[in-house]
């Protein structure tokens, strides 16, 4: 698609960073507040779609290439699998119960970021998978039509 | 060592998954390395599946709880986590998907020679299908069954749409995807009804609770949803329209894998009706429904197959009619099982069950062989319709022999495996009602007739100049066909050896619901 | 002809669903709650995370999340396969 | 409480979804009706876990004496929603390609052109 007017481009570049930070916040706080990998990844994915709408296909393709997004997705998935299925029995048993991310006060509490054993990295990895998945779909669907091809 | 064996089902699921994702990364470097990587991983997965099968046959159920040593947490009698429960039936079905995906990867080395585009993604999808199939066969959790059902459906839809020369693969993939999505959603509705009532997702736990509280109206509704959705996915008659497109339009190795994917949902149907509902449903009615469904599937499948013009659509309709045999076998078993009192299972009921289950594996083998030979013919001549093919026997001797072996097996001729399982179904169905065997035999004769026609028009006939010196298919495709042909002959010559070791425990495991529940609680 | 059969099947299906919805479970009063009760009590202690849904997703039913990430990756790969012709 | 209203809503959504699926011929409309069916099933799954007057099952600053809703159905729904997105994306990609090769989105036309 062709990019929109100059105003929309500048606003898009201004707003992109806050959306990115908000998406990462949702991902990282997955084990404290409602949210997690999937929701955070979807938010950042929508930010990528916004960039494509604002800047048009050619401009945006410079930043988001198909091959790099595919390898991010595959890499994040492989690391998630290794961390969750192969290493987690050892890491989690060591961390659970110890002050290092493993113990929180029972019942209702304020929520300490350093808790939830390996949930924090897992949520971020799942977020990466969803994020690069959205990016790939947006990149592919953007190449279909459009007059400035 | 014991603890490692318990983990084998999880390894059989995760190995192809991790390797499939790594293929996307590895694929960029060199084709040769990637091909060898894919086939060796799928070969190892097949070995793990065979090891699990013999482990389960030797000392009973394997139950593996993800993330905890034993199935239910301490001082709590309800399973909370997901439990992989592998009984002889699940391990038996995983054999089919493991074998076909391995041979498909071998066959595809040289099958896609013209456009080498996107082969990384193709192999990644193939390995994810293998992982999804193994997961579907091993999991003991209802929602997990839905997730793995969905994985196999979407990866199969992606593979169907892979051969993008003309428009037809997209339409076939779209129809397949709509059918799979709707049937998976109906399955999920059934799971919702079960979860809403019993607050338990584990098949053994739900069966236990259902026995306590009796078979309510909502359970019948859930059973209806399960049977409808899984029969739709398995390609039984009322909803079989997607199969000719899905099998006919795809590349040959994928049609072979698709046959085993449909058999997986047939296994899901048996798992739900035997292990989940088992004795607290009045099995005679359900048994007769499955028998009638089987008869219809058989008859309509073969009737449509005779009038087909292209090789692969003809074989697709034959695949539908062969599914009818499996439904007939297990349906007769269910009727016999439920009519006698719970204790004594009449002999012919047990035999019918064994015949149906044995036919599932046999069908996977010889139907795969037939699809591979059809693929070899299309690979060499790039022609699909029967009329303008001819006299390939001189050019492609190996493929001709493989085709003859496959055709004889599907028609149920004695020395091959098709005959071994069909004869068991004939005997046991005859005792229940001679009409069933009459229809089954008629369908077998019609199958033989249509395959003789195919053989004559494709391999014999006058010499055609444009297929002069096209030569044989590359060795990797020959290896895949040789593997299946030797299995067809092997199972045909020693049927009772195979039946005693693999099929009888599978049939017993399917019937004995208490054992399945015992594994959990 | 197809329309009439379709409408009949649709109406039967709808009445089944309505029957299941109204007479079966009552919304808000589950009969059993032992599996969820256990998870709600022990999630904090076993997984040290406040959000019980995340601990169910990543710990108690981690195979579901694994399967779901695979579904997402399979769909993305299939879309790449289908729309590949345009990528070049 | 409100006499199973969510379950009735699920039944109505299923009716609409299946009506669109059986009688509409446009590919995009078929995709939309599959999305409606998925939405209905997800709504059904979520409403299973509700307990009278319950609070979301997150322990961070939750009100004290309220009971907590069940966590398992909410986790199941997250999975079912993502599977729904995956199926919808693939169906839309396929209908785009079908439109390009056949020039029409009407299934009757597509079947006729394919011959």
The DSSP helix count of chain C reads 5
User: Per the principal axes of the C-alpha atoms, what is the gross shape of chain B?
Assistant: globular
What overall geometry of chain C do the principal axes of the alpha carbons give? Answer: flat
Mean pLDDT over all positions of chain B: 85
Biggest sheet of chain B: strands side by side, in what order? Answer: 1-2
Helix run count of chain B: 20
How many beta strands in the DSSP annotation of chain B? 2
Radius of gyration of chain C: 22 Å
Structural class of chain B: mainly alpha
Main interface pair?
C-D, 47 and 46 residues
Order of helices and strands of chain C: HHHHH
Cα-atom Rg of chain B, whole angstroms?
Answer: 22 Å
Q: Please bin the fraction of helical residues of chain C.
A: over 70%
Strand content of chain B: under 5%
Quick one: biggest sheet of chain B?
2 strands, antiparallel
N/C terminus separation of chain B? 24 Å
Low-pLDDT segments of chain C? none
Residue runs with pLDDT of under 50 for 5 or more positions of chain B: none
- The overall pLDDT of chain C, averaged over residues, is 84
Distance between the termini of chain C: 47 Å
By oligomeric state, this entry counts as heterotetramer
Compact overview of the structure:
The complex is a heterotetramer of chains A (about 150), B (about 525), C (about 90) and D (about 120). Chain A has helices at about 5-30, 35-55, 55-65, 65-95, 120-140.
Topology (elements, then pairings):
The complex is a heterotetramer of chains A (149), B (521), C (88) and D (115).
Chain A: H1 6-28, H2 37-55, H3 57-63, H4 66-95, H5 119-142
Helix pairs in contact in A: 1-2, 2-3, 2-5, 4-5
Chain B: H1 2-6, H2 8-26, H3 31-59, E1 62-65, E2 83-86, H4 88-111, H5 119-138, H6 142-160, H7 168-198, H8 203-213, H9 217-234, H10 242-248, H11 252-277, H12 283-306, H13 311-339, H14 347-381, H15 397-411, H16 417-432, H17 434-459, H18 475-493, H19 495-511, H20 513-520
Antiparallel strand pairs in B: 1-2
Helix pairs in contact in B: 2-3, 2-5, 3-4, 3-5, 4-5, 4-11, 4-14, 4-18, 4-19, 5-6, 5-11, 6-7, 6-11, 7-9, 7-10, 8-11, 8-20, 9-11, 10-13, 11-13, 11-14, 12-13, 12-17, 13-14, 13-16, 13-17, 14-15, 14-16, 14-18, 14-19, 15-17, 15-18, 16-17, 16-18
Chain D: H1 5-23, H2 27-48, H3 72-102, H4 107-114
